């Protein structure tokens, strides 16, 4: 059983994994393949903590002026990320870690922490997202039949396959969050899904992205 966190359990500092396109949401699971030495060290250090939390944060798209010309440095981070607890781990023969994070709570990045770790750490602000700790959300306006019909058109247009029986029976929050994580949206679109205030807004945003992808495929008949 996954540990339940109270606001007082959330730490004042967490390591972050700035991986473009990798989205984590509360109560959803994100599999990761860890192989870079700095992130292997991050995981080793995280496993020594009681909370075992890692923050997933999208790096910002870098423009020339973002860092002041050609001055080197790490990419800036988006202001909102999601922390997940390491809930499964296996080590491969070649020294990689295959892990899964289970989303706990979103956070705002107050600032980065200078130090001697090879990975980045931030000071998270949790106060705006205490509802993430309260258990599964409901979406009373969810129409599964209409949603799955749109999703099928998207999969057909994108030439993707899925297990439809599992989609038909999945709890609403799991369905919306899992699709938000797995669909190949852009970094900006993933960030928009992360920042939605509630599940119904995330579902509306997801459906808008699906419709846009169908229209962009060039097959207007799939929009009918």
TrEMBL record:
<dbReference type="InterPro" id="IPR003111">
    <property type="entry name" value="Lon_prtase_N"/>
</dbReference>
<dbReference type="Pfam" id="PF02190">
    <property type="entry name" value="LON_substr_bdg"/>
</dbReference>
<dbReference type="InterPro" id="IPR046336">
    <property type="entry name" value="Lon_prtase_N_sf"/>
</dbReference>
<dbReference type="InterPro" id="IPR015947">
    <property type="entry name" value="PUA-like_sf"/>
</dbReference>
<protein>
    <submittedName>
        <fullName>LON peptidase substrate-binding domain-containing protein</fullName>
    </submittedName>
</protein>
<feature type="domain" description="Lon N-terminal">
    <location>
        <begin position="14"/>
        <end position="214"/>
    </location>
</feature>
């Amino acid at each position: 059983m996954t540990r339940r966190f109270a606001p007082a359990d959330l730490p004042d500092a967490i390591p972050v994994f700035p991986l473009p396109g990798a989205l984590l949401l509360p109560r959803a699971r994100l599999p990761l393949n860890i192989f870079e030495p700095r992130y292997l060290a991050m995981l080793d250090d995280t496993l020594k903590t009681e909370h075992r939390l890692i923050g997933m944060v999208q790096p910002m798209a870098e423009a020339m002026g973002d860092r002041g010309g050609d001055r080197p440095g790490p990419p800036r981070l988006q202001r909102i990320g999601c922390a997940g607890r390491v809930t499964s781990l296996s080590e491969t023969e070649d020294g990689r870690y295959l892990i899964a994070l289970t989303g706990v709570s979103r956070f705002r990045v107050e600032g980065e922490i200078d130090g001697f770790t090879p990975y980045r750490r931030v000071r998270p602000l949790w106060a705006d997202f205490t509802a993430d700790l309260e258990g599964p959300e409901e979406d009373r306006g969810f129409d599964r039949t209409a949603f799955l019909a749109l999703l099928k058109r998207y999969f057909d247009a994108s030439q993707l396959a899925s297990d439809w029986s599992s989609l038909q029976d999945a709890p609403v929050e799991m369905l919306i969050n899992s699709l938000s994580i797995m669909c190949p949206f852009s970094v900006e679109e993933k960030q928009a899904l992360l920042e939605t205030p509630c599940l119904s807004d995330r579902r509306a945003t997801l459906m808008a992205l699906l419709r846009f992808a169908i229209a962009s495929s060039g097959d207007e008949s799939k929009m009918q």
